[in-house]
Amino acid sequence: MTLQYGQVLRYLPDFLIGAAISLVIALVAFALGLLIGLVGASVMTYGPRMARWGVRAYVSFFTNTPQLVQIFFLFFALPEFGILLSPVQAVLIGMTLNAGAYLTEIQRAGFQSLPQAEIDAAETLGFTRVQTVRHVIAPHIIKALYPSLSNQYIIMTLGTSMAAIFGVEELTARALNANAISFRSIEIFSLTALIYIGLTIIASAILYTFGRLAFRVKARAF
User: Which positions fall inside the ABC transmembrane type-1 domain (predicted)?
Assistant: First the structure.
């Protein structure tokens, strides 16, 4: 068997476009999931009992069922109820809801890690509620959560590969198409793996640098 990478390099520009689509899907789903997680964590920490049960049921469902099954349900079952989603919509909604459940748990842990003594000290110093949130609560929670949130984003970037099953033209889908045309499986998928490794290294480096500069916190580098 002779490896012929020269034949598959012509697919590289197409793969890079697919990689960009993967990054956009992961970024949008992560940003929306972060908002859901913030609301969910706030409700679970400070909300009334009934609301906490509702959030707990949502988190339990989405963290105890495969993400792929969740997207299958959105894409194939919702049309039975008159709700028709495009492949991109189904993947984005599925990934967002799944991320929201995990990010709820991550952010709830951050809220609970806040020492009451720091809030008491802020009140003793005469801080207003806004000043307490800005100078005490927010810095503590960001530093506590940033590494976990960074890791979650990296996981979500790699998880976009399941979008290929639904026909979304991200990186893995373009690799499958190229493989069907060229039959150079080893070269195609080793090149695809290298691109995914490049994506995670670049994303990790950006997150690490941003965390150091913005919050003086170390996140995953590589």
Answer: 19-207
Instruction: Work out whether the CA dihedral 171, 186, 176, 165 comes out positive or negative.
Output: negative
Selected from 3.30.300.20, 2.60.40.10, 1.10.606.20, 1.10.3720.10, the CATH number assigned to the domain covering 5-215 reads: 1.10.3720.10
Q: Which two tokens stand for residue 199?
A: 């994506």
pTM greater than 0.70 (yes/no): yes
pLDDT in tens, the chain (222 residues): 677 777 788 899 999 999 999 999 999 999 999 999 999 998 998 889 999 999 999 999 999 999 999 999 999 999 888 889 999 999 999 999 999 999 999 988 888 887 778 778 877 887 877 787 777 777 888 888 888 888 899 999 999 999 999 989 999 999 999 999 988 899 999 999 999 999 999 888 888 888 888 777 765 555
Domain ranges of the chain: 5-215
